[in-house]
Design a protein that fits this description.
The chain has about 220 residues and is α/β, with parallel strands linked by helices. The protein is built from 9 helices and 8 strands.
Length: about 220
C-alpha cells in the first residue's frame, strides 16, 4: 500500500452499522430476531424487563401478564450463533442480572447497554464499563459521562443529535449510535446521520437502510 492509500483509508468514514429497532417486526419477538439475523443487520435492539417471579422477558411496555412473552435467554441463544450483536435497552433489569445472563451466553463482548445513569454506574462498578452506552443529552453532560464512565459508544436521539454534541463525541473517538425512528426513519435522514458521523443507525426499516448504505458506500 502506498502512503497516500494509507492516508485515504485513515481519513475514510467508518462503515455505518445497522440496528434493528426492537429486534425487527413483530416487536421484541424471536421471529423478528431470526429475520434480522438472516437480513444481515449488525445489531438488534431489544427491550428487557423483569417479571415479579424474577424472569427476564422481552417487552417494551410494562405488563400484567408475562405469559407468551419471549425470554431474554431465548433471544441470547439466537444472537450468539448468528454473529449479530445486542443493543440492550434495559427497561427493568439490574446490572448484576445483565452481566450474569450475558456472561452465561458469552455475549459480554458483543453487547452494549442503554439505560439509566444509575444502571451505568452499577455496570462500571462491576468492572463492565465497556457495556455502558449512555445517552448524550448535551455537550456538558457528554463530557462528564466520558470522564466518569469511559464509554466506547454514545446513544443519540433527534434531540441531542446536534453538531456541538457530536463534536464532543467525535473528539473522544467514540461510536455514535443514533435513533432514526418515526418521521426521521427515511433515506434523507439516514444519509444525513451518516454524513455527520453516525457509526450506527437504529431503524424500523433495516432492509431499506441496508440497501441505501450499500448503494452509497
Amino acid at each position: 500500500m502506498t502512503r497516500r492509500t494509507l492516508l485515504m483509508a485513515a481519513l475514510a468514514p467508518a462503515p455505518v452499522q445497522v440496528i434493528a429497532h426492537r429486534g425487527g417486526k413483530p416487536d421484541n419477538t424471536l421471529t423478528a430476531i431470526e429475520d434480522s439475523i438472516r437480513l444481515g443487520v449488525d445489531w438488534v435492539e431489544l427491550d428487557v424487563r423483569t417479571t415479579p417471579e424474577g424472569k427476564f422477558v422481552l417487552s417494551h411496555d410494562a405488563f400484567t401478564d408475562a405469559s407468551g412473552l419471549p425470554t431474554f435467554d431465548d433471544a441470547l441463544d439466537l444472537l450468539r450463533p448468528g454473529g449479530c450483536r445486542l443493543y440492550l435497552d434495559a427497561k427493568q433489569i439490574t446490572a448484576p442480572a445483565i452481566v450474569d445472563r450475558l456472561r452465561a451466553h458469552r455475549m459480554l463482548d458483543r453487547s452494549v447497554v442503554y439505560g439509566s445513569l444509575a444502571l451505568h454506574r452499577a455496570l462500571f462498578a462491576l468492572r463492565q464499563g465497556h457495556l455502558c452506552m449512555p445517552e448524550a443529552v448535551s455537550a456538558p453532560v457528554l463530557k462528564g459521562l466520558l470522564d466518569e464512565l469511559k464509554p466506547k459508544i454514545i446513544a443519540f436521539d433527534r434531540n441531542d443529535f446536534r453538531d456541538e454534541v457530536l463534536a464532543v463525541a467525535r473528539a473522544a473517538r467514540v461510536g455514535i449510535f443514533v435513533d432514526r425512528l418515526g418521521k426521521d426513519d427515511n433515506e434523507a435522514a439516514w444519509l444525513d446521520a451518516a454524513q455527520r458521523g453516525a457509526t450506527g443507525i437504529q431503524t424500523d426499516h433495516p432492509a431499506d437502510l441496508l440497501r441505501v448504505l450499500r448503494r452509497h458506500k
